[in-house]
Amino acid sequence: MSIESVQKECCEHYQAIYAPVEPTQLVTISKGIYEGSTPVEGVRYPSPNHMSGWWLTTDEYDGNTSSLVTVHFEHIIERRPELAIYMALPFGYRFNLGGESEHVWFDQAVADESI
């Protein structure tokens, strides 16, 4: 099954518009994302076109935004395909993965943020 088809199923499940990320769009990540050893929190902010809007953090994130890096979405697909499943959810969506249970929800405050 392709990433695209799984993303579409995810959006349908959460009754959300399908808003895919292009492979070359940027994703903001913290330490621990590529390693995959800790739970991940994702949030998608309204963003300029070169950015996906996704910020992915782990418990290793200390709140210092200068410690974050941007990577192309294609690298997330390669290294963490289980995260890519959620990344066609539109601006305003959040997810937690790898903790006690999967949790996905819409956050209107995030959706209303301006670029």
In short:
The protein has 115 residues and is α+β, with helices and mostly antiparallel strands. It is built from 4 helices and 6 strands; from the N terminus they run αββββααββα. It has a 6-stranded mixed sheet with strand order 4-1-3-2-5-6.
Describe this structure in words.
InterPro entries: Imm33-like. Pfam families: Imm33-like. This is Imm33-like domain-containing protein. The structure is a single chain. This protein has 115 residues and is an alpha+beta fold. It is built from 4 helices and 6 strands; from the N terminus they run H-E-E-E-E-H-H-E-E-H. Strands 4-1-3-2-5-6 form a 6-stranded mixed sheet. Strand 5 and strand 6 form a beta hairpin. The protein is globular. The mean pLDDT is 93.
Strand order of the largest sheet: 4-1-3-2-5-6
User: Over all CA atoms, what is the radius of gyration?
Assistant: 13 Å
Count the E strands: 6
Q: Which geometry do the CA atoms define?
A: globular
Number of helices: 4
- Give the terminus-to-terminus CA distance: 34 Å
Mean of residue pLDDT values: 93
Organism: Pseudoalteromonas peptidolytica F12-50-A1
InterPro entries: Imm33-like
Domain Imm33-like: 7-107
Protein name: Imm33-like domain-containing protein
Notable traits:
alpha+beta, six-stranded mixed beta sheet, 115 residues, 4 helices, single chain
Topology:
Blueprint: H1 3-13, E1 26-29, E2 40-44, E3 51-57, E4 69-72, H2 73-79, H3 81-84, E5 93-97, E6 103-106, H4 108-111
Parallel strand pairs: 1-3
Antiparallel strand pairs: 1-4, 2-3, 2-5, 5-6
Organism: Pseudoalteromonas peptidolytica F12-50-A1
Domain Imm33-like: 7-107
Pfam families: Imm33-like (PF24719)
